[in-house]
Amino acid sequence: MKTMINEARQKNALCRVLWLNITIPLVFITTICLSQNTVRQQLDREREGTSFLDPKTYEKARSFIRRDSTYYLGYMLEGAYLFFRANDELGFTKAIGPLKKAMNKIESDYDPLLRIRTSNFNTYNANYKYHFDYGLITYFLDRCYQNVEQQDKAMEVLQHIRDRNFQMEINMDSYNTMAWLYHRNRMYTSKQFSFLKNSVKENVAAANSCLDSALRKIKNDLPFNNGIYDPSYLNRQYLSTFHYKAMIHDYLLDIDSANYYYDQLIQNGAYSSNNYAEFKLAMGEFEQAELYFRQAEEREQSVEKTTKEYFYMRGTLATYRGHPEEADTLLSKVLQSQGSTPGYGWHCIGLARAQHYEGLTAESQERINKAARFQELHIGTTWGQEQYNLAVASLQYLNQLNFKREYMFEHDEWYFWFNPLNWYRWIKYTIEIRHHKMLLASLVAESPERDQVIYSLFSPENLITFDEVWSVMEGFGNEYFIKMYKNRLDTDKRPRMKKYFRYILGKLYLAEGKDSEAKEYFEMVLNDPECSDPFETLLIARTYEGIARATGGKSQKEAIARLYQIYPQLMPFTDLTMQFNLDIVGQLNDEQNRIIKQLKRTRIDFTDNESVPVVTLSFGQKNESIDINYTVSIRGEQVQHGTFTVDPTSKEDAGKLIAYHLFGIQKTKIGEQPAAVPQIEKKPSEKPV
């Protein structure tokens, strides 16, 4: 009995010890949790009204982390602040750390709440803030990964969102953004990013499949959202997916489908002015494209440092319209205001193109060198590094051509080939041109979407001019391209593009030595009822250049005269010779006579023919400098005029400078030829197939 009593006492004592061992930690943990919840509630209250753009936000975020390093909020604020401050790869990489911590912590602490799907307003409202914050965290983190080209990581973030099956993806858009990633990286394969397919066609199909999933999800979520969200808001969910549907059908040149989705977006005021402008540009509706690019600038409200496509594209349109100087002014202002932030490289390319068509080859080369050295981030755009590299290589090649053409224009002496220096120059230029031509050709050959994007001449993803596309194909398989463009004439559904295909066919037949066929196609371009569109100026000028090459005698002279009237800056960079009647005002001294002799040694035919444009020159002295006044008149109407000053260091090239000014080219120096610099390789990666 005693033994039994002792055993009972021992058991009771053991139970009391166990109870204390369990109860005391539970009380301690409960106390900690209550204290932690109190701190978190206080942090939530202090967070109210905080702007991610406020310089004090970073300090507040670090304070939140010190007070509760296990709570996601401080890391979210820190990451968001760094996201909006980022200007380069390093900046976005710094933002990834805290944002990743924030995502891990909110998933760890509140995952069951993130997965709640309910039609009960009170239940949904009680957990809304976690859904809202999770959306912010994943949006910023996904964008950071995209901006530093860690596309696999970006896809993983989207999969986290998708797998929680939110009834309303607040601040996030899983399936639509997945489609964006497939489309943006369509030219790559699974060798670069594991989620991708193995061809452009398959990647675009995967993007479309994601969009179909987005539409299905909206329908599946409807029973839960019907009593919580306004019906008009729920209907607008479809518009987000339509935005991406329009973009993909636009890329594929599925015109009817693209029009359908854009019409839906426009009717509901949910369209992207920039995307719609690029669609209109691909259709050849340039005036509408210009209008919507301007509208895109006016509607721009994002505080993110995204690529401003509309500035670049407006510059290209100004060049088409025969006013590269306007593109120069626009892009120079943009570059001055933005500094070395994302988009700087693209705007350098746009400015280099404008200066190329202004005839300012040295300035263009300096600017394209800056683009080649700049490590561009392609933020919020489908424009990628491959398109960037192609645009840089294209202008580097064209500038090398122009350096040679400038030299030939400036030295049209009968004894040219008797000078060994000229032979050396000719060989040097030829080697440089061939080198850059091969670089350009290799980039095009490596592009898996060259048929869809480049050879179509106008495409939402083609970021070089039709003029540059011709420079890509020139000298490679004329018969192949003749067959291609004849087929495009028959099958392409864009009526405004037909004249461009005919122009290319004219150039191809000209290269084949079939002048009569070339002339026929060029004349078909000029007879097109829409060739009076001012945005066709570059096309018409190039067409007259083609006719001049394909003909002789009076027809050739008339074509040259028309080319000069339409786009005079192009003339010195052709092998065509312009005729002028020269009228010099006043008596010339020895120095001025030397200038006129040099002018006459350029590739200009000064004649007594009264039917050609009349050049009037006069000189003035300003200390050691010379003021040169010039006008060019056609049938009494001034088409070029101005005054420029030649300083003492440039006097030996004054005649050449006059020659350029007669064609509207505002050169200030002769002989400057910056060497092309190689492009920076951002990261070693396998080439797309």
List keywords for this structure.
5 strands; 689 residues; five-stranded mixed β-sheet; 6 domains; single chain; disordered N terminus
Strand and helix map with partners:
Layout: H1 2-47, H2 57-67, H3 72-85, H4 89-114, H5 121-147, H6 151-164, H7 174-184, H8 200-225, H9 231-251, H10 255-267, H11 273-283, H12 286-299, H13 309-320, H14 324-338, H15 344-358, H16 361-373, H17 385-410, H18 420-446, H19 450-454, H20 466-473, H21 478-491, H22 498-511, H23 515-526, H24 537-550, H25 553-566, E1 578-584, H26 590-600, E2 604-606, E3 614-622, E4 625-634, E5 637-646, H27 654-661
Tell me about the largest β-sheet.
5 strands, mixed
Q: What is the oligomer described by this structure?
A: single chain
Indicate the structural class.
Answer: mainly alpha
Number of helices: 27
